[in-house]
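Before the break, one more example. Copy the sequence into your notebook; we will annotate it together after we see the structure.
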Amino acid sequence: MPDTLERQVAFLLEADKLKEVVRLNQLASGTRREGTAEHCWHVILQTLTFADHAPGGTDIHHVVKLLTVHDLVEIDAGDHWVDESNFSDVKAREKAAAERLFALLPEPQGSEFKKLWLEFEANETAEAKFANAMDALHPMVLVFASGIDDPTHAPISAADLRQTKEARLRPFPRLWDYAQSLLDQAAKAGHLLP
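Here is what the structure looks like once it is written out:
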């Protein structure tokens, strides 16, 4: 038991590093960039708030578990705007991070956490699909709430963002409609190319 507890504490101390990872998007206030740990908490709160948008029978507790572990890999891999040019590299870095981080935990807990991470990445279960939709929507809400231009990304168009976000949000029509209205407003305000 002491070894189990020591390994769990070692994992938690390593996970604490997530508080130091700075993401690409702004806080809603526009005063600074969001940290990944802040993102994880806020996307979980968003998920609980929007739980009624999940299909009937979706286990929201399981969705929360997926969202709790999904960005831990950013401790090693960082936060990236993923496109065709870096997709393979980012995914390889994230996979290596998952291997290292979840191996810190005793078994079977390490395997359980890794299984959650893999489920989120595969995006096949009802819970993973809702978790991915929440993760896709969250930065859009923050970025467009700030009302400032985001200098981190190269100029991007509303059409490009629609294409990037559509697969994860379209299965949830009200959320997808809302996301599209955010894009339209951002383009109209000059924060995105049309």
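The longest strand covers residues 22-26. Residues 2-188 form a domain with the Hypothetical protein af1432 fold (CATH 1.10.3210.10). Try to locate both features in your own notes.
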